[in-house]
């Protein structure tokens, strides 16, 4: 990450902003920004000019970000149920500087608001998670889920169309049969590239509670979906049947003490998966041991430090995200204040604990008041598992270099992300005298939060979702 | 007392949040409800023990043999190590239960009492009989065992150190209408089953007298979690 001989920095690659129109909420006005300074200024002017109401609507809030396996595509989901896919522009000789920009590739409405008549409950359209399937042919496939329903989408390109039908004319109207005097063979003609997204499978009616995770298995045939109390195993081709592999629902719901907060398959061993709980523990299960994995194979738990107990201990120790490293040797968990790296061979404590925003420990009461304490921050690994990243408040995000033990706080904001310029590390002043360039804890903006981040699987390119803005940064090479 | 006020505020806030999360789009979130009830319960416990401590301080004849360290927390009302029972199990209560409170809390209460009282077994038995075994209404019914306890208290005072968790009747009575008012203010009209304990209720001699008025509110709200 930042371990090179010279200080390298992240520069803005792409910035996109969601600004929905309340009257036509399904229309996504999405802009991408090119790297050059002039363009950026122009774009902002243009944007401000076009937008009458500067406030975005809540449907515009980005709720998930995910690179595909090659890193060439980046999928984002939002609270309005839309999926926007960005594609990395390929290097071209005419535009040597254009390498690496991400442009909008496809946009589609994945989920619509629904109503559960039996429970008299509205089902939100918000996209909770997106997971790509490994690419097996020219088309790309992804799974997207809201609270209840998982959908398999196929994203494919079409750049040719058939022309020269015998019974139809060019506009598609039927021709008068008496006028057809000769038969011809239809031919494929090149046309403007069209990207189509079509729903291939809909996996519904298997979750009573809210789905928080989906994870594709390394066998490429199955995937799991987890809600608050159960984990189901699906075959990607079969929608009318799923197998329940974990069920922690107590017979008497009044005895409920914990819920499942996240679950993920091991990246290489198709029989192993982990799930985290609201108590701050992680269970590793082996599907070979039994069909219903009620008994875990490994149980990862760090003894609680009694000196730091408070009203909110249970909330802040709840794990909001769990991610295996690419190697499969480690896993990372995120709780409210810290991110921990666990060695799968050691259950008693994490091998690393990184404080994300420890200065908030004294502010837990007000964070409870304004509901921020319930925020679910995600975390991600870089391609070589040497660095990790997670979000914070005030549009800050944190990166930790595992080898050098260095960490950095960066800010994703329109003002600070001038193209070409490197992101400057930010520092939060934690008591005492505030130095220049430091920001005091009290002036942090808790409405600006970075919950979702993604790291390119091979390169140092990161995607950061800041409310309704998506920033893509690249590690500067020269 | 500041600790008490803080705990009270957090309790009120939690109940408010629980009520509002029912109207949330997409339905009640199980994880959030669980977390809210956890906070609510630790606030309640702290509130109650702060109350007891305050009463102890007001009656200097009562020596405090095991002062609860939670009563002197830092600003954020952090609970220090000493309040964790000796077996290492945190004092944090089980969530979203009211009836289970009885089974869960009783041994724990007994354990706490064991350190202070000469009759831990009897106290434990007593707790069980006088706690919320009948659900919502139990808290409103003065238990007969309380009378028995009065005798025990007298015995304790003569032979052993008095149980510090048994507050003087007058003060105990004064405490819970106060909480009831707070909760009533926030929820009057919203819940038809509000805290109905009259201020003139017979003095409760239970180990946790002041939690009674709150429990009807809690149980109504908390039960909703189960209604999936």
From TrEMBL, chain A:
Record-linked SMART domains: WD40
Domain of life: Eukaryota
Protein's UniProt keywords contain Repeat: yes
Gene Ontology molecular function, alphabetical: protein phosphatase regulator activity
SUPFAM superfamilies xref list: WD40 repeat-like (SSF50978)
UniProt keyword annotations, A-Z: Repeat, WD repeat
Gene Ontology CC terms, in alphabetical order: protein phosphatase type 2A complex
Protein name: Serine/threonine-protein phosphatase 2A 55 kDa regulatory subunit B
Automatic annotation (TrEMBL), chain B:
Stretches the record annotates as Disordered: 59-176, 190-209
Biological process per Gene Ontology, one example term: positive regulation of transcription by RNA polymerase II
Biased segments, Basic and acidic residues type: 67-78
Pfam families named in the record: IER
Domain of life the protein comes from: Eukaryota
GO CC, alphabetical: cytoplasm; nucleoplasm
Signal peptide from the UniProt entry: none
InterPro entries: IER
Family designation: Belongs to the IER family.
Name of the molecule in the record: Immediate early response 2 protein
Organism: Heterocephalus glaber (Naked mole rat)
């Amino acid at each position: 990450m930042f371990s090179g001989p010279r200080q390298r920095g992240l520069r803005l690659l792409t910035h996109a902003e969601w600004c929905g129109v309340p009257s036509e909420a399904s229309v996504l006005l999405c802009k991408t920004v090119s790297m050059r300074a002039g363009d950026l200024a122009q774009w902002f002017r243009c944007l401000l000019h076009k937008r009458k109401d500067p406030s975005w609507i809540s449907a515009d809030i980005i709720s998930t970000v995910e690179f595909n396996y090659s890193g060439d595509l980046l999928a984002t989901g939002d609270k309005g149920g839309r999926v926007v896919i960005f594609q990395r522009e390929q290097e071209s000789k005419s535009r040597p500087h254009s390498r690496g920009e991400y442009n909008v590739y496809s946009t589609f409405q994945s989920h619509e608001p629904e109503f559960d008549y039996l429970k008299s409950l509205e089902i939100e359209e918000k996209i909770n998670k997106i997971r790509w399937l490994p690419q097996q042919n020219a088309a790309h496939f992804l799974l997207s889920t809201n609270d209840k329903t998982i959908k398999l989408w196929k994203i494919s390109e079409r750049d040719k169309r058939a022309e020269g039908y015998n019974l139809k004319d060019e506009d598609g109207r039927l021709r008068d049969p008496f006028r057809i005097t000769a038969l011809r063979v239809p031919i494929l003609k090149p046309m403007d590239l069209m990207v189509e997204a079509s729903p291939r499978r809909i996996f519904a009616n298997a979750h009573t509670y809210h789905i928080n995770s989906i994870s594709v298995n390394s066998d490429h045939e199955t995937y799991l979906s987890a809600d608050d109390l159960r984990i189901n195993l699906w075959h990607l081709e079969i929608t009318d049947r799923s197998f329940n592999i974990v069920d922690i629902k107590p017979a008497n719901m009044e005895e409920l003490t914990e819920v499942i907060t996240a679950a993920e398959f091991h990246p290489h061993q198709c029989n192993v998966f982990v799930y985290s709980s609201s108590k701050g523990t992680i269970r590793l299960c082996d599907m070979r041991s039994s069909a219903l994995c009620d008994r875990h194979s490994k149980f990862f738990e760090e003894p609680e430090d009694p000196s730091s107990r408070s009203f909110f201990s249970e909330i802040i120790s709840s794990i909001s995200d769990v991610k295996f490293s690419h190697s499969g040797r480690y896993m990372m968990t995120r709780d409210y204040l810290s991110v921990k790296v666990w060695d799968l061979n050691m259950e008693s404590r994490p091998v690393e604990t990184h404080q994300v925003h420890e200065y908030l420990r004294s502010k837990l009461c007000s964070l409870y008041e304004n509901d921020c304490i319930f925020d679910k921050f995600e975390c991600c690994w870089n391609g070589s598992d040497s660095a990790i990243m997670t979000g914070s408040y005030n549009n800050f995000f944190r990166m930790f270099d595992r080898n050098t033990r260095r960490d950095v706080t960066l800010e994703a904001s329109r003002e600070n992300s001038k193209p070409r310029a490197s992101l400057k590390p930010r520092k939060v002043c934690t008591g005492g005298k505030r130095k220049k360039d430091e920001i005091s804890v009290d002036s942090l903006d808790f409405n600006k939060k970075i919950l979702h981040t993604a790291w390119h699987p091979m390169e140092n390119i990161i995607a950061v979702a800041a409310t309704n803005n998506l920033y893509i940064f690249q590690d500067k090479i020269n | 007392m500041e600790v008490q006020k803080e705990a009270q505020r957090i309790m009120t806030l939690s109940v408010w949040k629980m009520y509002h999360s029912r109207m949330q789009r997409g339905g009640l979130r199980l994880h959030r409800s669980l977390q809210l009830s956890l906070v609510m319960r630790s606030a309640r416990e702290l509130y109650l023990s702060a109350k007891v401590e305050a009463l102890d301080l007001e009656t200097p004849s009562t020596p405090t043999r095991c002062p609860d360290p939670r009563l002197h927390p830092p600003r954020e009302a952090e609970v220090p190590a000493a309040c964790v029972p000796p077996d290492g199990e945190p004092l944090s209560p089980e969530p979203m239960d009211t009836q289970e409170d009885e089974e869960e809390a009783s041994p724990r209460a007994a354990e706490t009492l064991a350190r202070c009282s000469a009759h831990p077994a009897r106290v434990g038995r007593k707790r069980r009989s006088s706690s919320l075994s009948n659900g919502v209404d139990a808290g409103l019914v003065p238990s007969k065992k309380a009378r028995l306890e009065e005798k025990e208290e007298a015995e304790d005072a003569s032979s052993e150190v008095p149980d510090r968790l048994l507050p003087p009747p007058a003060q105990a009575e004064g405490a819970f209408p106060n909480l009831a008012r707070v909760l009533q203010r926030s929820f009057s009209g919203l819940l038809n089953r509000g805290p109905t304990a009259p201020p003139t209720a017979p003095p409760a001699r239970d180990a946790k007298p002041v939690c009674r008025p709150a429990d009807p509110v809690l149980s109504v709200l908390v039960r909703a979690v189960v209604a999936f």
